[in-house]
Design brief:
308 residues; alpha/beta; ten-stranded mixed β-sheet; two-stranded antiparallel sheet; 14 strands; globular
């Protein structure tokens, strides 16, 4: 598992698509994610379509100390952004995740103040669900409780594997020229699409981790590990958006309720669609499988109902 970090960089220009910045080509659901660093906030907005196909829509970096208020005020403005859609109309950001691995209580406070923000706790391990049952946490700053929010656990290792798969699809499916001579990626469930304005640093961050064999505990275990000299903010950003997308019904098993793509598209372009019939009550979930030390085990993707 993982992705050869050299390949994507070598053919990045051939894969980049002629998509105007700020104009969504084929997605009907926008999800944002922010990775908190010591001196900045790194954020991106990803658009999802049917089958978990995805497009990078927007990204940025907010410089400053995450312990201060300024960077969070700027991130709050990012949550309000709206984007033009290629089919007409505008689309806003449905939900926006923030990683809690650094300055956790500042993240809790921010998410508690913004209804569309979600605090995410990325956890290692192969058999964790993409997004699990949340718990309420209190935000404490300077020894005082300043609010609370729900904290959502996410299974990062399986999500990173899905990222590697989507990058392989982008290369395998390639691009096509339309009648105007513009370059677009061939569509496929799960594949990634990148606008021409992305740079080499972005693609390096997408392939910053790979799977290695760890023998430190006396047995062979396959784990995701950061490559030496690489940064992985955009890997973490994809993982967060994909977990939130799954919680909304994107790319879920047939037994789960899929995101209503027809209604989402109609809301953007101003059309009317009949509401979908209600689903029958689902059967109780099976007991969780035993832990598995390698990615060949059963992948659990159970997402709780009605989180968002």
């Amino acid at each position: 598992l993982g992705f050869d970090q050299g390949k994507l960089g070598e053919i990045r220009k051939a894969l980049n698509e002629d998509v105007l910045s700020g104009k969504i080509p084929g997605a009907y659901l926008l999800i944002g994610m922010c990775d908190v660093q010591g001196d900045h906030l790194a954020w991106s907005v990803i658009g999802y379509g049917r089958g978990a196909e995805w497009w990078l829509v927007d990204r940025g970096k907010i410089l400053g100390d995450p312990a201060g208020e300024t960077v969070w005020e700027e991130l709050g403005e990012v949550l309000k952004r709206r984007y033009r859609h290629a089919e007409g109309g505008e689309i806003g950001i449905e939900v926006f995740g923030v990683d809690t691995g650094f300055k956790s209580h500042h993240v809790y406070a921010f998410c508690g103040q913004h209804p569309t923000a979600r605090a995410l706790d990325g956890l290692p391990g192969w058999n964790r669900p993409y997004i699990g049952k949340p718990k309420r946490v209190k935000a404490k700053l300077d020894g005082k409780i300043v609010g609370s929010t729900m904290l959502y656990p996410t299974g990062t290792w399986s999500l990173k594997s899905e990222l590697a798969y989507s990058l392989r699809l982008a290369i395998e499916k390639g691009v096509v020229l339309d009648q105007d001579g513009l370059q677009h990626g061939n569509n496929a469930p799960g594949r990634a699409h990148f606008p021409r304005w992305v740079d080499q640093d972005y693609t390096r961050e997408l392939v910053a981790e790979h799977v290695v064999e760890d023998t430190s505990k006396g047995k062979i275990t396959r784990v995701w590990k950061l490559r030496k000299g690489f940064r992985n903010e955009e890997t973490d950003v994809y993982v967060g958006t994909r977990a939130l997308a799954y919680g909304l019904g994107v790319g879920v098993p047939k037994s789960e309720r899929e995101f209503d793509w027809d209604a989402a598209r109609a809301a953007i372009v101003g059309e009317h669609v009949a509401p979908r019939p209600a689903l029958a009550a689902p059967p109780p979930p099976p007991p969780p499988p035993p832990p598995d030390e390698h990615p060949g085990g059963k992948l659990v993707k159970q997402a709780p109902k009605g989180y968002f």
